[in-house]
Specification:
The protein is mainly alpha-helical. Helices cover about 60% and strands about 5% of the residues.
């Protein structure tokens, strides 16, 4: 068993205890960050005169050699080591001798793992931001092409008022834009370096923590050594933000599943993002949308798991905190895959525009506009509301729509109806009359799209 702490103990750890305690199976993905942090650490140690220049060069050359060999496959990460830090240090000592034993000067595994996890998470935050930007680009492209693609807007899953596909997609643009803003907030708040905090109380060595932070691209060092090694707020924030991303993806997926159904037939999902049935040859299933919806619970679970792990931990570091990694890694991988596949599905999806417009007309989505028409003819709103209610009931009995009724049928219900009612309740008019910013009218929609383009180009 390769351990860094054996001097205090008089006998070997039980193998089952050792395996239970070890983290190398999952923390091996922190290998690059561990090497990167170690190079910065020894650079600082040499600058402070704690290591000689020759020792610094030997250690850095050894670390780079290990990194190269791991990446090209000639040096596998061996599970006989307790963690990735032990693996790196033991191999370094094997390669360069006693100089390698000085790598850990002024450092604890507590601040080392805190640094590695922070570096790793910081990189994943940037990755998620970029994936969300690609998703927003696809959404915006669809918006630009569908400013006059009419469809029903819904409340309570019932058809409410006519909107456009551009307007509907615009709601998701806002959601994913907020998700990107959360990524930037997390990055800014987490971008402080814990290295130099030691086990919990700093170190007696004359470290230059500002230099280490600068070398690693942080805004500065953390300001309390106890918090430095026991803080997982940044990771909980990230999992919370990822849960929000998945919630938005899941809502969007649910709508695509509905739109793909035989009852709606609003969309045609590309074959590359669908599967068939093993027994029913007619089926084309929206599996990607369903899996994204399903995996949302998995990401929520990671957030709740880490919140629960952290809720009763006294200062400072405790072994419980090792439980942050597996759930976080799984959540990060899950969300990355979901955004990527969802973006591809959206980018290749086709819209059945005639079905969308027909659904809007058949669902009485223009009823509010018909009531507004009567109000403009001098009918009090409450009376107009009642008249249109009776009109809708008549249409239901006749299995027709308001715009399909003859003028005589309309006037039998109210003599205020005139020939201009047909233009007033057309989908085009219903949408174009909505001109406040944020509404589906084409002029304001173009303004919003221009703002979105400016945002994505920024």
């Amino acid at each position: 068993m390769a351990q860094l702490w054996g001097g205090r103990f008089t006998k070997e750890t039980d193998q089952m205890v050792y395996d239970f305690n070890a983290s190398i199976r999952f923390d091996k993905r922190l290998f690059k960050q561990d090497v990167e942090g170690s190079i910065a650490h020894v650079t600082m140690l040499a600058k402070q005169g704690i290591l000689t220049d020759a020792e610094k060069k030997a250690i850095i050359a050894g670390l780079k050699g290990i990194k190269e060999d791991v990446e090209n496959g000639t040096l596998p990460i061996d599970y006989k080591y307790e963690d990735v830090h032990s693996f790196v240090e033991a191999n370094l000592i094997d390669r360069i001798g006693d100089a390698g034993k000085k790598l850990h000067t002024g450092r604890s595994r507590n601040d080392q793992v805190a640094l590695d996890m922070r570096l790793y998470t910081r990189g994943r935050v940037l990755e998620m931001d970029e994936l969300l930007k690609k998703l927003l680009t696809v959404i915006l492209s669809t918006m630009e092409e569908n400013i006059e693609t009419y469809m029903p807007g819904f409340t309570h899953l019932q058809k409410a008022q006519p909107v456009t596909l551009a307007h509907h997609y615009g709601a998701y643009f806002e959601m994913f834009k907020r998700d990107r803003q959360r990524m930037k907030d997390i990055y800014k708040r987490m971008n402080y370096c814990p290295l130099g905090a030691g086990a919990l109380a700093g170190t007696t060595y004359d470290l230059d923590r500002n230099l280490t932070a600068e070398l690693l691209g942080f805004d500065g060092p953390t300001l309390n050594s106890m918090d430095s090694v026991s803080d997982r707020d940044y990771l909980i924030e990230f999992l919370s933000a990822l849960s929000m991303v998945m919630m938005h993806l899941s809502r969007f997926s649910e709508e695509i599943i509905i739109w793909n159904s035989n009852e709606y037939q609003f969309v045609e999902i590309d074959d590359a993002f669908s599967t068939g049935s093993s027994i029913m040859p007619q089926k084309k299933n929206p599996d990607i949308a369903e899996l994204v919806r399903g995996k949302t619970g998995r990401v929520y679970g990671a957030l709740v798991s880490l919140l629960t792990t952290m809720k009763g931990i006294p200062l400072a570091y405790n072994k419980d905190m090792q439980e942050d990694k597996e759930v976080a890694f799984d959540a990060m991988d899950t969300v990355s895959d979901c955004i990527t596949l969802f973006t591809g599905m959206l980018d290749t999806m086709k819209f059945k525009k005639d079905n969308m417009a027909k659904s809007a007309m058949n669902g009485f989505t223009n009823a509010t506009d018909a009531a507004d028409y009567l109000v403009n003819k001098g009918v009090p709103f409450r009376d107009a509301h009642g008249i249109i209610g009776r009109l809708v009931l008549y249409c239901i009995e006749k299995d027709t729509s308001i715009d399909a009724l003859s003028l005589s049928e309309l006037q039998a219900i109210s003599d205020k109806f005139e020939e201009d009612i047909y233009d007033a309740v057309s989908l085009k008019t219903c949408v174009e009359k909505r001109l406040t910013i944020g509404a589906p009218g084409p002029d304001v929609m173009k303004q919003v799209i221009a703002l979105h383009k400016e945002y994505l180009d920024g």
